[in-house]
Automatic annotation (TrEMBL):
Species name: Nocardioides panacisoli
Key words of the record: Hydrolase, Magnesium, Metal-binding
Protein name: Exodeoxyribonuclease III
Co-factor(s): Mn(2+); Mg(2+)
One Pfam family of this chain: Exo_endo_phos
Record Gene3D superfamilies: Endonuclease/exonuclease/phosphatase
Domain of life: Bacteria
DNA sequence: ATGGTAGGGTTCCTA
């Protein structure tokens, strides 16, 4: 089974690239973030024609997430118990959707950006991560994958210019500690062993030709529970999908991350 | 300290 995660920065404007990506790499399950579409706006026709089903966090928000699967989608959950806003009508901005696909419990996540370290959104980000951690501890015994845009660079090696990010979100000790706690609990970054750094990123800002100069960040991760990690046989970051010179239409600012399971 | 690009929730806001 082959799974992937990709912050597409609008599913509607990226649908041609998404469909081409699914075809090219023979993807079974794709978790997407920043769908920027209501449920009634999702571009389903091409996906359904390819045999995929979709589970989306059904609110009107730019941070929306979804899971696209051709190996079944069961037990869909919008948000997780304890998530800030969980159970409320808008489900806390729909930053998390979980489903069981082909025996794997997959969570498509958009961790709050944080905006600025002195912004209330930064406090919300740290709280959100801790609440996710609380819930995720209960899933360690299952085949669980926490995938998506974490908006955290775990080490200086994951930032093209650490000195430029000194007073920015994504690299603060508190964010790194919040990320590290998932690893301490037993979740593993299953991609890094196959994509060693430095200079390996998943996101490049649109401006200043950051991609062309490989000035990026590594912020998209697949964290696997032990029984999930045991099944991983390979992984890669599809940099070509971030290349404006390749494919149809403009690219997302993130590249997809692909993981193979036995 | 600022600005640069992309997408939508648009003539501004978020990333």
């Amino acid at each position: 089974m082959r799974i992937a995660t990709w912050n597409v920065n609008s599913l509607r404007s990226r649908i041609d690239r998404v469909e081409a990506f699914l075809d090219r790499h023979d993807i079974d399950v794709l978790a997407v973030q920043e769908t920027k579409a209501r449920e009634d706006q999702l571009p389903l026709m091409g996906l359904q024609a390819r045999g995929y089903e979709i589970a989306a966090a059904g609110v009107d928000q730019w941070n929306g997430v979804a899971i696209i699967s051709r190996v079944g989608i069961e037990d869909v959950a919008v948000g997780f118990p304890g998530m800030p806003g969980w159970g409320e009508p808008l489900a806390a901005e729909a930053r998390a959707v979980g489903a069981t696909c082909g025996g794997v419990r997959l969570w498509s996540l958009y961790i709050p950006n944080g905006r600025k370290p002195d912004d209330p959104h930064y406090v919300y980000k740290l709280d959100w991560m801790d609440r996710l951690r609380d819930a995720a501890q209960a899933w360690l015994g299952e085949q669980t994958a926490l995938v998506g845009d974490w908006n955290v660079c775990p080490t200086d090696e994951d930032v093209f210019a650490p000195e430029q990010f000194k007073n920015s979100t994504h690299v603060t000790p508190a964010e790194r500690a919040a990320f590290q706690r998932f690893l301490d609990d037993g979740y593993a970054d299953v991609v890094r062993p196959y994509c060693p750094g430095p200079g390996v990123y998943t996101y490049w800002d649109y401006y200043r030709q950051r991609f062309e100069r490989n000035r990026g960040l590594r912020i998209d991760f697949v964290l696997g529970s032990p029984s999930f990690a045991d099944r991983v046989t390979g992984a890669f970051i599809d940099r070509d999908e971030r290349d404006p010179a390749q494919g149809t239409g403009s690219p997302s600012d993130h590249a997809p991350v692909v993981v193979d399971l036995d």
